[in-house]
Amino acid sequence: MTTESEAGNAFSIFIHQMLEETSIDQMVENVSLFARRFNCSSISYGPQPHVQTVQRESRIKLPTLLTYPKEWQEHCFKSGYDRLAPGLRVSPFQSSPILWDQAYKDPNTTDRERRIFDEAKEFGLQTGVTIPLRGRLDDFPIMSFVQSETSGLSKFAVSWLTSAAFLFHDRVEGRVELKADVPSLTAREKECLTWVRQGKSSWAIGTILEISPHTVDFHIKHAKSKLGAENRRVAAMEAERLGLIKPKFWLL
Hints:
The protein is of the alpha+beta class. It has helices at 4-20, 24-35, 70-79, 100-105, 111-122, 155-175, 187-197, 202-209, 213-227, 232-241, and strands spanning 40-47, 65-66, 98-99, 127-132, 141-147. The protein has a five-stranded antiparallel beta sheet with strand order 2-1-5-4-3. The relative contact order is 0.13. Residues 52-58 have low confidence and may be disordered.
């Protein structure tokens, strides 16, 4: 059993590995190796498929990464189960780690959810912890660490695994290929959206850029289409989020 001091030393090594690594596959290997310090033989990571947000339509998506037994993954696929966290639906408002043993005993857990937990045990997923994550993509990902035995997880183990999950998530987000999915805006479209973000009307933007309000609307319409935005304000906010225009009030 790993002591808290040993876990701290292992985490220091893990940090250095993650900061130097650029391959997501190797990141998975690194976090899996760290998790084995706490007898966790499997991990899962990814956005929750049942959480519906505006960003679910985003061009930028996190990968789903699993090291669960293939038999369990196939069983989940055939049964229509969420493969990330057996028997769990994690609320977007949940912030603290969820221990599977406690979730199983929770009176709010349904009979169906308990049955999925029981089935998972038949495939070697005995107990684990699921950690809600947050990030710039707003797709509410989670990460689970799972034991194939029933020894359980101590408080300090959960704490270290939570820290590892957040570091892993931060690194994976940073490796998501943004540029390939970000639409290309013309210089004029960027100018118009920049001023929209400042709260300017088409008439005011036209005056600033010395073009007609009709031309301003033309550029904004095309930018909206490229960004998949329903209105000019949303288009400007999305362009800012993607780094296509400068943050609001940068001109002041």
